[in-house]
Amino acid sequence: MAVDYDIVIIGGGSGGLVVASAAAQLNAKVALVEKDRLGGDCLWFGCVPSKSLLHASRVAHEVKNSSRFGIYTTPPDIQFVEATGHVQKVISTIQPHDSPERFESLGVEVIFGEGQFKDEKTFSVNGRDLKARAFVVSTGSRPKVPPIEGLEEAGFLTNEQVFSLKERPESLAVIGAGPIGCELGQAFHRLGSQVTMVSSRDHILPKEDPEAALVVEKQLEADGINLLRGARAQKVEVIDGKKHLWVGDEEVVVDEILISSGRVPNVHSLNLAAAGVKYNEQGIEVNEKLQTSNNRIYACGDVIGGYQFTHVAGYEAGVVVQNALFFPSAKADYRVVPWATFTEPELARVGLTEKQARDRYGDDVEILKQEFADVDRAQAEGATEGFAKIITTGKGEILGAHIVGSSAGEIIHEVIMAMKHNLPVSALTGIIHIYPTLSEVNSKAALQLKKRNYAKNTQLQNTLRKLFGFLRSINS
Ligand SMILES: Cc1cc2nc3c(=O)[nH]c(=O)nc-3n(C[C@H](O)[C@H](O)[C@H](O)COP(=O)(O)OP(=O)(O)OC[C@H]3O[C@@H](n4cnc5c(N)ncnc54)[C@H](O)[C@@H]3O)c2cc1C
Ligand SMILES: NC(=O)c1ccc[n+]([C@@H]2O[C@H](COP(=O)([O-])OP(=O)(O)OC[C@H]3O[C@@H](n4cnc5c(N)ncnc54)[C@H](O)[C@@H]3O)[C@@H](O)[C@H]2O)c1
To answer: Which band of pLDDT confidence, cut at 50, 70 and 90, is reported for residue 476?
Structure first.
């Protein structure tokens, strides 16, 4: 039986919008179902507002600390509402790119509504039954709220409310020290809130290289953030308008609580069972072609768990477009997935950690670590905290990289390029780096393998010693 659409996409965020625009530009018949606004978390409550707020907070910090460069100012007068005004301005400048009008102009039928699967071949929304050759579920994720006694009654913020606050909370407890907690904790603290961060682990950013995460942790504490490690909030109570939070033996009294303790996939209202789509707590189960247990239905982005980043949702969307519109042969390849946490200093990563590398490659692992303090540009800018750590095999195959420091999220790209194209680490010393740039941290790290191998090669050293001796002896 004929169907109306080549592809019906459910969820118009980072993943769904890429599928929609690519499919429409390939002349497929496309419908996009969105329950709220196009743009998803990244535009409204995620990447865009968080990076805009972080920038404002970084400026405040720079002004406050400018005396180290001989620039004296009065303490900055931070108008919080104007800083969040900057955030909203950035969102509205970017938003037209994700607007219904733009997608309609590409030929996408945009349907606003929250629908459900009726059966294995039908998605029903606003009383209409949509039948398609393929469906894509890209409904994203939402904040996971931990079971803390009294939290619901006391009220709390998540990333969905925090960017539209009209007043700065004078004090803020941040529950969870992953990327959301660290980025927003630092931003609010630098904009004038007194921040207490509660980390269930002994260190912040537990998914990162521990040594690199420690550099960020030290900066958060140097900023003045009160970090409670290895602790969980148990109870909240509102007393005289303040939120009293019990964390182990400590009682923390704050104006607001921000929850940043992980994400849950948006699967529940879709009636996935009717479509034969399996899911678990992490999200929808997919194979490497991003097909669900119903091979006509694909899924991508946060809703499949895994790497929850905008650029990964976009990458997966590309795989889905190929497979859903044509023959399903493309496989998602996660060998080289980079990301960054945009605190100051930034922490960027690609590939394996030191531990993962040692688990897989045993003793055949080299750690090439270069401190920013030995990079001239870092000295010039007073940005000497941090390092680049490139992990390779003895022969120089790049297994991973962890850069913590100023602009780490930018600097890491040449390592990503080398790794993706299977270039050895020597490729990073084989190009001329502009002097003085922070990117020299990569070539300096990479050079260490060459030096280390030369230091081990006593035969070559002796040969060269003899050769130069001979050349000197015949030089008249
Ligand atoms: C505070 C914060 C900061 C972040 N910073 C970064 C960053 O700097 N870099 C980065 O790469 N990633 C960042 N992320 C992660 C990034 O936002 C997500 O990985 C990305 O948005 C996932 O894209 P997605 O398409 O899966 O979901 P989304 O972009 O969230 O899109 C899902 C869409 O589906 C819609 N939807 C949900 N349920 C239904 C339904 N039943 N029917 C119809 N529509 C539905 C939603 O309304 C939404 O529009 C951040 C996240 C947060 C929370
Ligand atoms: N710069 C970026 O790319 C960026 C920024 C923000 C978010 N993100 C994405 O969003 C995802 C979600 O971020 P997140 O920070 O919410 O989640 P996360 O899962 O990465 O970190 C949450 C942390 O909270 C801790 N935690 C859980 N319950 C707790 C409790 N009751 N008390 C104290 N700590 C508790 C967890 O152990 C964990 O370390 C990230 O994994 C990332 O993929 C990316």
So the answer is: confident
Burial readout 102-114 (b: 16 or more C-beta within 10 A, e: otherwise): bbeeeebbbbeee
Of 269, 274, 324, give the one whose Cα is nearest residue 296: 324
Mean per-residue pLDDT for 315-319?
98
Mean pLDDT of 247-252: 93
Pocket lining for ligand 2, CB < 6 angstroms: 146, 175-181, 183, 198-201, 206, 232-233, 260-263, 308-309, 339-342
CATH code for residues 5-143+264-325: 3.50.50.60
Among candidate residues 280, 279, 298, the one with its CA nearest the CA of residue 289:
298
Question: What end-to-end distance do the CA atoms of the chain give, in Å?
Answer: 92
CATH number for the domain whose boundaries are 151-261: 3.50.50.60
CA distance 34 to 145: 24
Tell me which amino acid residue 47 is. C
1 falls in which pLDDT band (50, 70, 90)? Answer: confident
pTM, full prediction? 0.97
Q: What is the pLDDT of residues 101-116, one digit of tens each?
A: 999 999 999 999 999 9
CATH topology assigned to domain 345-458: Enolase-like; domain 1 (3.30.390)
Asked whether this complex has an ipTM greater than 0.85, the answer is yes
How far apart CA 86 and CA 72 sit, in angstroms, is 25
Residues with beta carbon inside 6 Å of ligand 1?
Answer: 10-16, 33-36, 40-42, 45-47, 50-51, 114, 138-140, 159, 180, 266, 269-270, 301-303, 308-311, 313, 342
